[in-house]
Amino acid sequence: MKKSFTIQSTKELPKVAEALIELMGKANVFAFNGSMGAGKTTFIKVICAALGVENVVNSPTFAIVNEYENPKGDPIFHFDFYRLNTLQEAIDIGFQEYIESGYLCLIEWPEKIENLLPDNCVYVNIHSEDNTELRTIYWEV
Ligand SMILES: Nc1ncnc2c1ncn2[C@@H]1O[C@H](COP(=O)(O)OP(=O)(O)OP(=O)(O)O)[C@@H](O)[C@H]1O
Ligand SMILES: [Mg+2]
């Protein structure tokens, strides 16, 4: 089933986040596709806020992965593979173990590690019109 939302501003992201959160019992790996500046990090921040994360959510700057915690104390992993040079670097940080942990994994620039993603990965696409606030966010499960 395909779900698609066209939104005019970041204010509408919480309702999109709620729809995505509904899938989190069935899948733990979510890959966010979208060009530079499309709004991947922004959307992930809103998702984490909706899940009750109190840490600051930002793209990993020095590491490839940031770890947050939900109110239950479960970890949430946020990956940004933009600066990844080789697949081996992802393997070396233990990417496979992260996704097999069953904990929530939110991934920016998944194209870099496509071959490592599990079959039940949910691909979230964010499309932005040039020079507008308009975003289309869609996924298919
Ligand atoms: N849904 C949205 N509607 C309007 N503007 C947005 C939306 N999401 C993000 N923006 C704006 O777009 C800019 C870039 O967003 P963001 O950093 O989240 O993109 P990104 O996809 O993570 O980029 P990168 O590929 O560099 O990681 C920010 O200034 C943000 O305010
Ligand atoms: Mg980003």
Structure in a nutshell:
This protein has 141 residues and is an alpha/beta fold. The chain has helices at residues 13-21, 40-50, 87-92, 95-100, and strands at residues 2-7, 29-33, 65-69, 75-80, 104-108, 122-128, 135-140. Bound molecules: adenosine-5'-triphosphate (ATP) and magnesium ion (MG).
Strand order of the largest sheet: 1-7-6-2-5-4-3
Cα-based radius of gyration, to the nearest Å: 14 Å
How would you sum up the major sheet? 7 strands, mixed
Could you spell the SSE succession in H and E letters? Answer: EHEHEEHHEEE
Q: Please identify the top-level CATH class.
A: Alpha Beta
- CATH architecture call: 3-Layer(aba) Sandwich
Mean pLDDT, rounded to whole units?
Answer: 95
Characterize the overall form. Answer: globular
The CATH topology assignment is Rossmann fold
Determine the structural class based on helices, strands and strand pairing. Answer: alpha/beta
Number of domains: 1
Explained architecture:
This protein has about 140 residues and is an alpha/beta fold. The chain has a single domain (about 25-135), classed as Rossmann fold (3-Layer(aba) Sandwich). The protein has four helices and seven strands. The protein has helices at about 15-20, 40-50, 85-90, 95-100; strands spanning about 1-5, 30-35, 65-70, 75-80, 105-110, 120-130, 135-140. A seven-stranded mixed β-sheet has the order 1-7-6-2-5-4-3, with helices on one face. Helix 1 (about 15-20) crosses helix 2. The longest helix has 11 residues, at about 40-50. The protein is globular and about 40 Å long. Adenosine-5'-triphosphate (ATP) binds near residues 13, 37, 41 and 108.
